[in-house]
Amino acid sequence: MVGIELELAINLICDSVDSIKDIEEVSIEKARGRIIGEDIIAPINQPPFDRSPLDGYALRSEDIVGASKENPIKLKVIDEVFAGGYTHKEVKKQETVRIMTGAKIPKGCDCVIRQESTDYGMETVEIYEEIKHHQNYCFEGEDIQKGSKLIEIGEKLTHVHIGIIASMGYEKVKVIRKTKVALISTGDEVICGGTPLTEGKIYDSNRRMIAARLEDLGCDVVIAEVMGDDENLIANEIKAIMDNVDVVFTTGGVSVGKKDIMHQVIQILDAKRIFWRVNMKPGTPAIYAVYKNKPLLCLSGNPFAAIATFELMGKQLLYKLGQDPDLKEVRKEAILQDEFLKASRGRRLIRAIYDEGKVYLPKGGHSSGMLGSMVGCNCLIDIKPGTPKLDKGDKVQVVLL
Ligand SMILES: Nc1nc2c(c(=O)[nH]1)N[C@H]1C(S)=C(S)[C@@H](COP(=O)(O)OP(=O)(O)OC[C@H]3O[C@@H](n4cnc5c(N)ncnc54)[C@H](O)[C@@H]3O)O[C@H]1N2
Ligand code: MOO
């Protein structure tokens, strides 16, 4: 093999770029899935006051010792308090306040009795059950203590984080800005959808497919173009867009054909080529270069090769840039449930479906140019070089997508 190992390729790619440090402030409505750019320290207690978890009566537990249905204890109701309100009255011996769930517990009370254990009295109330000190009592700060660290810089915000941030009264949060990506599909045979398909042409799938995947991965696709085979045009375009993006991905034109123009594009740009060819199938002829200190990853035009190498190398590059922990490569051992009869002289990665330790092959072809059988696949089986075939029951390693 003439290329480098996949692991080395990933290391070279990741070592060549710095993580994005730019922070932007976004409304919490838009913050789900973003990487937080600051520690969030609680500015208040949650709940912000001692409150009732029940609809009932707030009282002093010592006043109702021994209370039961047979031996009710009568208390004077001195006020009524709803969630959102409060009373300034202090509850003294043999007194109580009618209270609703979520309302602030009045001074003097140390517990709340549920209304079902009373006669629901308005002026006075009969209590039918004894409860203890601090029973049915929510303390200020019992959920979140003022000053505690709620979210650490670098965490990915889930809906639960958003709930917590919202409970602290914040409307905005600082996050790492999204990774800005440009995509270019090359090849004179590649045309955009919506135009008639003429002889020898094919519709572009790579640009739309990778753009959609980039959205899944939380990136901002700022440019997505179909550009033909003119190396000067492509080089000029990359020159023009590189300042506005963090990374450029291209597909097509990386192999050894007369029109495999990405080699010339890299020369015209005077970009630093880091590697060409990775010891694996699909996507062997991938090229990686650095231009204006930014990454230019050129993938094979074959749609399966393009998406597989994007998943293996492109995703790790995006992980380094945007620091989204969900983008880190995950490998699992699995037991193959089908056979794969093709010999793998070199390392081969094939599409498959992983489910709880088992892995299934999809129906349909496995070649680099075929995308149809990729539907529903959620992993790549990493087949070692020199594997004659895979049998049902073989233990394999998969890379989750
Ligand atoms: N003599 C040799 N020929 C080839 C070799 C080799 O070593 N010696 N390597 C083969 C391998 S492996 C691959 S992979 C391909 C890679 O070719 P390129 O990356 O240069 O890609 P293209 O030739 O431009 O396209 C390949 C294939 O994919 C179709 N394509 C391209 N772009 C798109 C797109 N945006 N959407 C859909 N389909 C696309 C294109 O029409 C070709 O059919 O080279 C082998 N050849
Ligand atoms: O390396 Mo290429 O993607 O197999 O056909």
From TrEMBL:
Pfam families: MoCF_biosynth (PF00994), MoeA_C (PF03454), MoeA_N (PF03453)
Pathway entry: Cofactor biosynthesis; molybdopterin biosynthesis
Sequence ranges assigned to domain MoaB/Mog in this UniProt record: 182-320
Catalytic reaction equation(s): adenylyl-molybdopterin + molybdate = Mo-molybdopterin + AMP + H(+)
CDD domains: MoeA
SMART domains: MoCF_biosynth
Its EC number(s): 2.10.1.1
Cofactors (names): Mg(2+)
InterPro entries found in the cross-reference section: MoaB/Mog_dom, MoeA-like, MoeA_C_domain_IV, MoeA_linker/N
Keyword presence, DNA-binding: no
Primary enzyme class: transferase
Keywords from the named record: Magnesium, Metal-binding, Molybdenum, Molybdenum cofactor biosynthesis, Transferase
Free-text function comment from the UniProt entry: Catalyzes the insertion of molybdate into adenylated molybdopterin with the concomitant release of AMP.
Matches recorded under NCBIfam families: Glp_gephyrin, molyb_syn
Homology family: Belongs to the MoeA family.
Protein name: Molybdopterin molybdenumtransferase
